[in-house]
């Protein structure tokens, strides 16, 4: 437990949440940058060598890691982070990353309660995004999303 507290304090002191939200918003706003980054990652030798490999954009990868902390996940939802996460383009390249972020949120019941209490348009978009993830061609994203839905219900 001591290590958990030691790691969490610098995350908040250095403004990690602000950084992650800014980066997600930046990639969302600049579609050219997003598509170029995704194209480079998707065409890399790692992708060809490991077909089941989840492609994570750096901000989403960081977010997945940080959402393991209850305090960070709560702050993320309270600061409107779901709006940013739901605005990530529905591209096949990022399905795994978004699914892992949703799973991180769903794994903490108190955070998921806050998500369910968000205004109707947000919860509707969340359900629509999850349905889209379930219908994606990425097998790992489908598995993670089904696990997330099982945790909710």
* Low-pLDDT stretches: 49-55
Gap between N and C termini: 29 Å
Mean pLDDT: 76
Q: Helical proportion?
A: over 70%
Shape: globular
Series of H and E elements: HHHHHHHHHHH
What structural category arises from helix and sheet content? mainly alpha
Which percent band covers the strand fraction?
A: under 5%
Structure summary, number of beta strands? 0
Give the radius of gyration.
15 Å
Tally of structural domains: 1
Total of helices = 11
Largest sheet data: none
Summed up:
The chain is 76% helix and 0% strand.
Describe this structure in words.
This protein is an all-alpha fold. It has one domain (2-152). 76% of the residues lie in helices and 0% in strands. It is built from eleven helices and no strands. The longest helix has 15 residues, at 120-134. The protein is globular, with a radius of gyration of 15 Å.
What are the main properties of this structure?
mainly alpha; single chain; globular; 153 residues
Q: What is the topology?
A:
Blueprint: H1 2-13, H2 16-29, H3 31-42, H4 45-49, H5 58-66, H6 70-78, H7 81-86, H8 95-106, H9 109-116, H10 120-134, H11 139-152
Helix pairs in contact: 2-5, 5-8, 6-9, 8-11
């Amino acid at each position: 437990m001591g290590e958990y507290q030691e790691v969490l304090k610098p995350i908040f002191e250095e403004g990690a949440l602000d950084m992650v939200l800014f980066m997600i918003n930046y990639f969302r706003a600049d579609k050219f940058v997003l598509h170029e980054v995704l194209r480079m990652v998707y065409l890399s030798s790692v992708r060809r060598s490991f077909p089941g490999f989840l492609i994570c954009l750096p901000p989403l990868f960081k977010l997945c890691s940080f959402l393991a902390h209850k305090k960070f996940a709560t702050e993320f939802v309270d600061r409107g982070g779901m709006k940013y996460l739901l605005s990530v383009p529905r591209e096949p390249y990022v399905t795994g990353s978004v699914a892992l972020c949703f799973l991180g949120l769903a794994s903490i019941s108190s955070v998921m309660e806050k998500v369910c209490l968000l205004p109707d348009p947000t919860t509707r978009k969340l359900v629509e995004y999850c349905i889209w993830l379930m219908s994606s061609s990425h097998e790992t994203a489908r598995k993670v999303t089904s696990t997330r839905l099982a945790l909710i219900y």
